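--- STAGE predict ---
source: upstream dedup step, 1 unique chain passed
mode: sequence only
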Amino acid sequence: MVIMNVWQMKDRFDAVMEAVLLPVLPQSVTPNLITGVRFVASALVVATVFFGWWVTSLLLVFVAGFTDWMDGWLARARGPMTEWGKRWDERADKLLVLGVVAALLARWYWYTESVGWLWYVLVAAWSLTVLRDIVMVWLRKLRLSKSVVLPVAKLKTALQLVALVPLLSGEWWWPLQLIGVAIFGYATALSLYSAWVYAAPARSQISMRWS
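--- STAGE serialize ---
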């Protein structure tokens, strides 16, 4: 129910933006161009987090998050939706989320006297997310995963991006870090669930071999 409500809100927002933004957006602005901008912005976010430039990091996270929505919306509204765009869109998301969290974990480890239990929880969630992504890449290469995009997978990505804001803002007020870790942990749970659903063909083959 929650996922469906979020999906409906997204569709309404897309319709509003199509009426407002699409007529004034130049034809030279393509989905692939926006994806490229997000990839560069994601790399810059990781660098700014590592150096502790928190305000710049947050601004770039908002830019990357907006372009994450915009390239998909523009591809649906105007086209074209290319294989290059699909592939690099996913890579830009992973660079942003996993790169920022890794840089943040590194700073916590090097620049605090004791990392505390939140650090270990975030390390566990980050590690499970990386492991899940590695397994999914392997299954896709073997063509043993579903090719459709699940709504829960979209929600997972959105929550991962949302989690970055309180994680970075926690440098000013530490309870926000707790909120960020909780959101990222929930996104990790959704990530593992979506992987289980995507891996249905692989599970079916394993079941047939053992039956």
